[in-house]
What does this fold into?
Amino acid sequence: MKAVSTRLRSLAVELWLPVLVVVVWWFWSGSAGLQFYPPLSEILVRFQEMWLFDQFVSDVLPSLRNLLVGYTLAALVGIACGVIMAQLPIARRALEPIVHFLRSVPPVALVPLAILLLGFGPGMKMTIIAFSAVFATLIATLDGVRAADPVLAEVTRVYRISGRDRLLRVTLPAAAPQILGGLQVSLVIAFVVMITSEMLASTEGIGYLTILAQQTFAITDMWAGMLLLGLLGYLFNRLFTLAERRILHWHTGMREQAKTA
Amino acid sequence: MTEVVTEPNVPQQAERRLTIEGLCKTYGSGSNAKTVLDGLTFDVNAGEFVCIVGPSGAGKTTLLKCLSGLLPPTSGRACLDGEAITGPPEKLALVFQEYTRSLMPWLTVEKNITLPLRNKGVSKRERGERTREALEAVSLADSRRHYPWQLSGGMQQRVAIARALAYQPEVLVMDEPFASVDAQTRFELEDLAQRVRAQFGVTVVFVTHDIDEAVYLADRVVVLGSSPCRVREIIPVNLAAPRDQVRTKADPAFTELRSRVFELIRKG
It folds into this structure.
């Protein structure tokens, strides 16, 4: 019984503010009658009409597909290059300056060039998402692998652990806390770039519909788009945290052990 | 205290497992060169338990790294069964001092032990059998599904020993393995080391800075001097087997041996 009441209490502590915001928004927007702040009830109606599920296939799915492909590409390339650069000093020396230069370029600044080279299609968006998101993961992987305990390197040598086993069971897990930190930053960047690329150059997608609504004074539709983007962003972050907790359960457990010991 | 069964002392004509000939190691070059090992020569026979003691900073770790193929010597050589050691030999396993760092915290006890066997071409069934046998030898059969960090320090070092045993080496090298556990655990682990040496018939090279430990465990003690590190003396330990924490350490011969080693180390 006590466990249930503690859980309820912690849930209440977490939820009171979001609930309050929604309630205030609901009543305030319902009575304010402002042009740019339509009633929340109307936004929700448009939300349901647009996204469930009229434009789900035509706009939400393309956005999610671009994000998924671009992000996956960024994650794989980032981890692979990070490991290679960490383990080959020559690769590191040759590539580190250019990596630091490219990651300082604001991704949105590349959209004009990307349009010239790749057009307006999904290929351009996936490319620019992948390009923008790759560096956070790459640099985190590079640092994580390099920071690994040298004793582990000696263990792998003495016990002749090599090839796939070394990569998948020693190198990557040892750097996993940093790599996952990088992947989370990459996810945020990928999401932002997904929306921006659609707002700047697209004929489909959630970002495109949201900016189109704003430009055609369909203010309620614009709010519905913003609401969906906000919810998606929150959802992705939540899913990521859940996955991270599973992958790093040993890390959390070890730290808690150290605290109590 | 548990009684320890050890093999009788190895006869003089025993097979030589490890030979170390004029081993030198210099770090750096030119005027910055620092000689750490200066012409070490000694042998370890098959089945023998040899302890290496020396003042701290004498280069014990460097010596171990040369023996286990992690570091190439500057001159001289270390041989295992007549073959010069140029990289980590398959017939050698190492137990590191820092158990918290040498075990993989993301793998369970069982997977820590099987990981080195996967590359050795050991079948899955045999991997399981070796793991079970090794864990039983260190009395941790019930902990195979735990993670290392869920175990006490002494238990973690026993996992590291089990990993080495499952690897089935001819030579087991131990680098101050019990330096960071409490005294009671240390005695238990010393007896465990004796027991597994007898059970697995493995040759042991055991580095320690604890003189009592060296004399208690060893068939021979190699005493090193410091800066640069040379072999000062090799002392045979003819204490009765099985050794026992109370009886052996009360033996006047034990006291005499430890005083001798102590004197040698104090002279540096």
Summary: The domain at 40-260 of chain A is CATH 1.10.3720.10 (MetI-like fold). Chain A has a mean pLDDT of 91.
